[in-house]
Write a structure and sequence with these properties.
heterodimer, A: alpha/beta, eight-stranded mixed β-sheet, four-stranded antiparallel β-sheet, 12 helices, 34% helix, B: alpha/beta, five-stranded antiparallel β-sheet, 32% helix
C-alpha cells in the first residue's frame, strides 16, 4: 500500500507581474513554473538551487504566503485536507496552525523589544490556541526546554543572545503551536559552521520527537545531503531532478546537478574537479531561454534542447529528471 | 621574499560598554606569490586584522604600543601603523595594497560608472594619462573574463550581475598592480557555480601577477582550494597556522579539529555532525588564559583557564598554540 503524501503539489505556477500597464496585461515573471512534487509525512524534504531559482517562492506558496497562479497544492494530514488554491479564510486560519516557517536570519526575525517568553508566546496568543496565561506559560516552557533554552533565557531580550541561541528561539516560536509541517528557508545559512552543525542536529531530533515533516530550502548541497531524505533540484522556476538523497548524490543524472556537485570546494587541496565547471550565470527569470532552460550553460546541449521543453519523467524508481539526454549522459559516465 | 610582516598586532576598540579586544598578539608574514588564508568564525577578528594593514578600522580603534606592520616599499621598509595622515596613507591604500570586499554591490559607488571608478584610482596611484588608464581598465575587464568589456566600462554597478560585479572589483583592485591583495570573503555572497569560477580566476591571476593574497573566509573548503598557507583565528588570536595540507589533514589545535568535524562532508553522508560545544563568548566577556578553553573538550583544569599557551612547533612550519597538543595529535 502506498502512503498518502502530506503535501501534494500538482503543476504549480506562481507568476509575478512586471510593472503595470494601462491597457492589457503586464508581462509576467514566472517564478515557479509547472512544479509537481509529493512530500510524504515524516520526510525531511530538501530543495536546492541557486539564487533566483524560485525555491523560496515555492516554499512560500506551500504556506500560502504568495498567491498561486495555476495548479494545485493539496494538504492532507489524515484529519483535515485542504486544497490551498481555493481554501476559505476560516480554513486558512486553521492551516496556519498546521504549517509554519523558520526564517533565515535570526538577527532580523526576532523583535528587539520583546522578551524571549513573549516572542515564543505570541503565536499562541494570536491564534487563540491557549485559554489562560498559565496554559500559555506551560506551553512556552515545554517547547523552550525541547529547544534547549532554560527558564533564565525566557526573561531576557534577544540582543543578549548569540546567533545559534537566537535561531533556537526562532525554532521554538515556530514549533510552539504544534504544527506538523515546517518550511525551513535557509535556516542555517547565516550561522557559523560550529553552530550550524548544532542547529541541524536539533532540527533532526525535534523532527523525530514531534513527528514533523520538513521542507528544507538551502543553497548548500553538503548541508542538504546530510539532513534530508529526499532532494529536489530547482533551476529557473522548474524542477530539474528529484531523488532520494543517496541516489541523487551517488548518481546525479541532470547536467545541472552534476555541475552543482562539482562546484562545491573540496576540503582536499589536491582534489581538483575542473572538468564539470559551469560557464556563465543563471539567466534572468524575466526572460528565460526557450526549450530546456538550462541549455545556455549545458555542455551536452543539442539542437533539440533549444526547441523542446524536456518532460518531467521517472528515470528509475523514485528518481525523476527533466532532461532529453539523461540516458545518454548516465551511460556515458 | 617577505613583503609584509605583521608583528604582535593588538587591536582594541573603545566602545560605550568598555574596551573590547578584537585582535590579540597576531603575527604573520606574507611572501610574494603566496596565498595566505585566514579562517575563523564571525567575531574572530579576521576582518579587523586585514583592515589594520591599511588602517581602515573606525576612529575608536586603538592599536597596541608594541604592534608593528612593516611593508616593503621599494628599498625602504614602511611602518604602516606609524602613518598618521590620510595623505601619507595613499602609498598603502590602493597603492601597495588593494582590497576586495564581500559585498560587491556595496563597494562600487552606485552613481558613477564602473569605468570612471577604475580610471579615477589609476589616475591617483599611477602616472598614466587618462587615455592609457581607459585602455588598461578595458583590458583588465577583459582579462577577468567579462564579455563585451567596452560596453561594461560605461555601465553602472546595478546593471551587472553579482558574479560580474565581483569580477569587475577584482579587475579594479589589480589594475594598479598592488603587491598585496586583501580578499575579504570575496565569494561568500556568490552562488556555488559562480564561486567556482571566481576562485579559478583568482588562482590564475596569482600566477600571472605574482602578488601576495591575504584570503579571508569562514569556508574551509574554499581555503583548501586557494590557499598555500592557512592561519586559524579564534577570538582575536591565531590558534594554529601552517601549510594548508598539514593543517587540514593533521590539525593540531582542538578548535581546528572541531571546525573540521562540524563541517558536513559529501563523501561521508552517514557520519554524524559534531558541533563545537557551547557558543562563542561575547567580546565583553573574553575568557582568561586560552581563549578557547570554555568550549574545548581537551581543556586542562587550572592550566588552560589561567595561562595563555605559547606557540609550539608541531611539524614543518606548522605551529599551534595549545597546552594539550600531544593529547590532540594522538587522536588524529
Amino acid at each position: 500500500m502506498k502512503e498518502k503524501p502530506l503535501v501534494r503539489i500538482e503543476n504549480l505556477s506562481v507568476d509575478f507581474p512586471l510593472g503595470r500597464k494601462l491597457f492589457g496585461k503586464p508581462p509576467m515573471l514566472k517564478a515557479v513554473n509547472g512544479v509537481s512534487m509529493d512530500i510524504m509525512p515524516g520526510q525531511f524534504y530538501g530543495l536546492v538551487g541557486e539564487s533566483g531559482s524560485g525555491k523560496t517562492t515555492l516554499g512560500r506558496a506551500i504556506l500560502k504566503a504568495v498567491p498561486i497562479s495555476a495548479g494545485k497544492i493539496l494538504f492532507d494530514d489524515g484529519k483535515v485536507s485542504y486544497d490551498l488554491s481555493k481554501i476559505s479564510q476560516t480554513n486558512l486560519k486553521n492551516y496556519r496552525k498546521l504549517a509554519q516557517l523558520i526564517f533565515q536570519d535570526p538577527y532580523a526575525a526576532l523583535s528587539p523589544r520583546m522578551t524571549v517568553r513573549d516572542i515564543i508566546a505570541e503565536p499562541l496568543e494570536v491564534m487563540g490556541i491557549t485559554k489562560s496565561r498559565e496554559e500559555t506559560d506551560e506551553r512556552v516552557r515545554e517547547i523552550a526546554s525541547k529547544c534547549r533554552l532554560n527558564l533564565e533565557h525566557l526573561r531576557r531580550f534577544p540582543h543578549a543572545f548569540s546567533g545559534g541561541q537566537r535561531q533556537r528561539i526562532s525554532i521554538a516560536r515556530t514549533l510552539v503551536c504544534n504544527p506538523n509541517f515546517v518550511v525551513a528557508d535557509e535556516s542555517v545559512a547565516a550561522l557559523d559552521v560550529s553552530i550550524q552543525a548544532d542547529i541541524l542536529n536539533l532540527l533532526k531530533s525535534l523532527q523525530r520527537q514531534l513527528g514533523l515533516t520538513f521542507m528544507f530550502i538551502s543553497h548548500d548541497l553538503s548541508v542538504v545531503a546530510h539532513i534530508c531524505d529526499h532532494v529536489s533540484v530547482m533551476y529557473l522556476g522548474t524542477l530539474v531532478e528529484s531523488a532520494p538523497t543517496k541516489k541523487l548524490f551517488s548518481n546525479p543524472l541532470h547536467p545541472y546537478t552534476k555541475a552543482l556537485l562539482s562546484s562545491i570546494p573540496s576540503l582536499d587541496p589536491d582534489d581538483n574537479k575542473k572538468a564539470q565547471k559551469l560557464e556563465g550565470e543563471i539567466p534572468s527569470p524575466a526572460n528565460p531561454p526557450s526549450g530546456c532552460k538550462f541549455h545556455t550553460r549545458c555542455i551536452f546541449s543539442e539542437d533539440r534542447c533549444q526547441r523542446e521543453v524536456p518532460e518531467w519523467r521517472e528515470f528509475s524508481h523514485n528518481h525523476t529528471v527533466a532532461c532529453h539526454l539523461a540516458e545518454k549522459i548516465s551511460s556515458a559516465s | 621574499m617577505t613583503i609584509l610582516s605583521v608583528q604582535n598586532l593588538d587591536v582594541l576598540f573603545n566602545t560605550d560598554d568598555g574596551i573590547i579586544t578584537a585582535v590579540d598578539d597576531v603575527s604573520f608574514d606574507m611572501k610574494e606569490g603566496e596565498v595566505l588564508g585566514l579562517v575563523g568564525e564571525s567575531g574572530s577578528g579576521k576582518s579587523v586584522t586585514a583592515k589594520s594593514l591599511m588602517q581602515l578600522n573606525p576612529a575608536n580603534t586603538i592599536y597596541g604600543e608594541r604592534s608593528n606592520i612593516l611593508l616593503k616599499n621599494g628599498d625602504r621598509e614602511l611602518d604602516v601603523l606609524a602613518l598618521k595622515k590620510a595623505r601619507d596613507m595613499v602609498v598603502v591604500r590602493g597603492g601597495s595594497i588593494s582590497m576586495i570586499f564581500q559585498e560587491p554591490m556595496a563597494s562600487f559607488a552606485p552613481a558613477i560608472t564602473i569605468g570612471n571608478q577604475m580610471v579615477e584610482q589609476l589616475m591617483i596611484h599611477t602616472k598614466m594619462t587618462k587615455r592609457q588608464a581607459v585602455e588598461l581598465s578595458v583590458e583588465m575587464l577583459e582579462r577577468v573574463g567579462i564579455n563585451e568589456p567596452k560596453k561594461r566600462f560605461y555601465q553602472y554597478s546595478f546593471e551587472l550581475s553579482g558574479g560580474m560585479r565581483q569580477r569587475a572589483m577584482i579587475a579594479m583592485a589589480l589594475s594598479t598592480k598592488p603587491k598585496i591583495l586583501i580578499a575579504d570573503e570575496p565569494t561568500t555572497a556568490l552562488d556555488v557555480t559562480i564561486q567556482a569560477q571566481v576562485l579559478e580566476l583568482m588562482k590564475d591571476l596569482v600566477k600571472e601577477f605574482g602578488m601576495a593574497i591575504l584570503f579571508i573566509t569562514h569556508d574551509l573548503g574554499v581555503i583548501a582550494q586557494v590557499a598555500d598557507r592557512v592561519s586559524v583565528m579564534y577570538l582575536g588570536r591565531i590558534v594554529e597556522s601552517g601549510p594548508v595540507r598539514r593543517v587540514l589533514h593533521a590539525p593540531a589545535h582542538p578548535y581546528t579539529k572541531g571546525l573540521l568535524n562540524a563541517l558536513p562532508k559529501l563523501d561521508a553522508l552517514d557520519e554524524p555532525l559534531t558541533p563545537v560545544p557551547g557558543d562563542i563568548p561575547s567580546p565583553l566577556e573574553r575568557p582568561n588564559g586560552c581563549v578557547f578553553h570554555t568550549r574545548c573538550p581537551k581543556a586542562i583544569v587550572d592550566l588552560c583557564n589561567t595561562s595563555v599557551p605559547g606557540s609550539s612547533n608541531v611539524g614543518q612550519k606548522h605551529i599551534a598554540s595549545c597546552f594539550a597538543i600531544e593529547n590532540v595529535c594522538e587522536t588524529v
